[in-house]
Amino acid sequence: MSEKKQVTFEDIAKYTGFSKTTISRYFNRPATVTENNRKIIREALDTLGYQENKVAHILATGKTEYVGVIVPSLELDYYSSMLDKILKTYNEFGYKFIVFVGSNDAAAEMRYLEELLAYQIEGLIIMNHTLPSMSLCSLSVPVVAIEREDRFINSVNSDNYLGGIEAASLLLEKPCDVLIHLNSPTDESIPAYRRILGFKDYCLGHGLPCDIMIRDFGYSHEELHIPVKSAFEEMENRYPGMKKGVFCANDVIANYLLGQVIRKYGGLTPYYRIVGFDNTPMAVKAAYSISTIDQQIDVIAREAFSLLLEKIRLKRAGDPAADVPVHKTVSPLILRRETT
Amino acid sequence: MSEKKQVTFEDIAKYTGFSKTTISRYFNRPATVTENNRKIIREALDTLGYQENKVAHILATGKTEYVGVIVPSLELDYYSSMLDKILKTYNEFGYKFIVFVGSNDAAAEMRYLEELLAYQIEGLIIMNHTLPSMSLCSLSVPVVAIEREDRFINSVNSDNYLGGIEAASLLLEKPCDVLIHLNSPTDESIPAYRRILGFKDYCLGHGLPCDIMIRDFGYSHEELHIPVKSAFEEMENRYPGMKKGVFCANDVIANYLLGQVIRKYGGLTPYYRIVGFDNTPMAVKAAYSISTIDQQIDVIAREAFSLLLEKIRLKRAGDPAADVPVHKTVSPLILRRETT
DNA sequence: TTGTACGCGTTATCAA
DNA sequence: TTGATAACGCGTACAA
Description:
- The first copy, chain A, is an alpha/beta fold.
- Chain A folds into three domains: 9-61, 434 Repressor (Amino-terminal Domain) (Orthogonal Bundle); 66-157 and 298-330, 3-Layer(aba) Sandwich (Rossmann fold), CATH 3.40.50.2300; 160-295, Response regulator (Rossmann fold, 3-Layer(aba) Sandwich).
- In chain A, 45% of the residues lie in helices and 17% in strands.
- The first copy, chain A, is built from 14 helices and twelve strands.
- Chain A has helices at 9-16, 20-28, 35-48, 54-61, 77-88, 90-93, 106-118, 133-136, 160-171, 193-205, 221-238, 251-265, 282-285, 297-316, and strands at 66-71, 96-101, 123-126, 143-146, 154-158, 178-183, 210-214, 244-248, 272-278, 291-294, 327-330, 333-335.
- Chain A has a six-stranded parallel sheet, sandwiched between helices. A six-stranded mixed sheet of chain A has the order 7-6-8-9-10-12, with helices on both faces.
- In chain A, strand 6 (178-183), helix 10 and strand 7 form a beta-alpha-beta unit.
- The termini of chain A are far apart.
- At the A-B interface, helix 4, helix 5, strand 2, helix 7 and helix 11 of A face helix 4, helix 5, strand 2, helix 7 and helix 11 of B.
- Chain B binds a DNA duplex through residues 6, 8-10, 18-25, 27-28, 32-34, 37, 53-62.
């Protein structure tokens, strides 16, 4: 009962008296089948309960319409939000996504890659940091990176340098005695590194004291609590009674910092202006809505997918341009909210 | 260059002098190939750069090792967290996931289903509410629902009734003058409805006044802010000076309520004890960590996948038990944190 | 232990 | 407009 095998073109062909070829054409080039015959086939499909089989289709055509996605975690708003936007491109482009959520384990990620390639994905979107772009660029399919080291592969990133500038300028709308930037140790090869530069350059350019506090904030949200707390205490000690403009590397850190401020001051205080980064849902879920630099996650996701699609086309056409890495950049927006 | 077609068993066979069958056996039943010949093949695979093709494998065996997932949104911690855990079962079971993130649009969801079936998924995990289980149960593959109407299909849910009881009992650890439950309009067919019952029954059983406030909190996090605020004001007006124990339908609502309390009282206050539901990352990201009823999302995800796998096996074996819906339940845990 | 021959469900090519 | 036949890449009886 459960194991009745599926209805195939063969069955439809027998039932209608046509050949398999005609049934195939009914689907792929309906114009080449008489309206009357189409009707016959349509009814046959219905009565026999035909169920499309894309696997056979793929084997014959070589086109899977699959894209692989590897993302570090879905517990962080940034990634889940990005994945959300990526998956939603289905409605426009029809590509399906096989998703892996990655450990920091290079071996595991290699397995994901193997699987994805075995399943004949046409392209890959990767957000994980573990595998170097050097080894990713030699894959048989185009790869687009989002906010990770991208030297040898395509990428779409926020204009991080501009973001850093925007954050500094936003903080300076209100007078601040000192500008502070909270970030994790960030390798220069990572796009986000430029946020620090932009911030620093803007401060220097305006003759403002700025303090870049690099602390290890870890990767999971649980880990974040402690280092943010100690960073807060440091700020309290180092700049007592001063108005501090704090630019946090992301909304999650900003949220925890806001939490510390609330605990100490019972709410917002002129002593702290806080700006986050990303504009994840987090930033509005906070007790006080957090001003942030909006990466425009939806735009980035869409650009990433479009770029990938373009590369897939080029590759299929045998165009050598397919193998030249393209790096796109999306300008972030300033979002003024309660914390500034 | 980019379009060189892939290396197949045929090529390896020619290169080594073996037949395709032997190459196939090298992969599937290596024990039946001489160690020496295995070595020869291994080297041939290497030098020719063989790349496994699962599509052909699937067509031949009928087993895709695909599971489809349909989830309403990834902007809400509950769903992204659940998806995270589901995807991570790959490391244990090896099944791959094709993921769709669904609108509330029934037509769109039907398209997702069609696609998934066409790609020969072996089973489906669904969290969306749009399609009734009545129409889901007639699919050719097993379906497991999580926290949605599940009358005719398998499901894994939190023991919502117990959860409601736990929430009430947790609030009563500290004396409260009134117990309040905040929830969206919830259909009786949805598992979460029983939370309300559990809460109410416990209150009645202990002779406590309880107020079930049903408000439309919408689906996205942006929408939530306003109704929570007005609910808060209602509580303030209705129970001035009283100690309120508030059980929120989920952590997101709890978080917004906490935000309102902070804004009014500058921090925690004995006037409000707050309990959330789910134990999403949200609950610890809040300014004060939120006490919550832990659904054990990881356990639910794992159970859902195991159940699906079991059903897939039964179906394959032609066992009629495959078609009998199984409803599993996971007991939630009480998590005492700062808000109580 | 290895090879031959055929099947999986679809599309592509060519001929009718 | 339609049909016969050969791919697509791999698995599996069955035979050797």
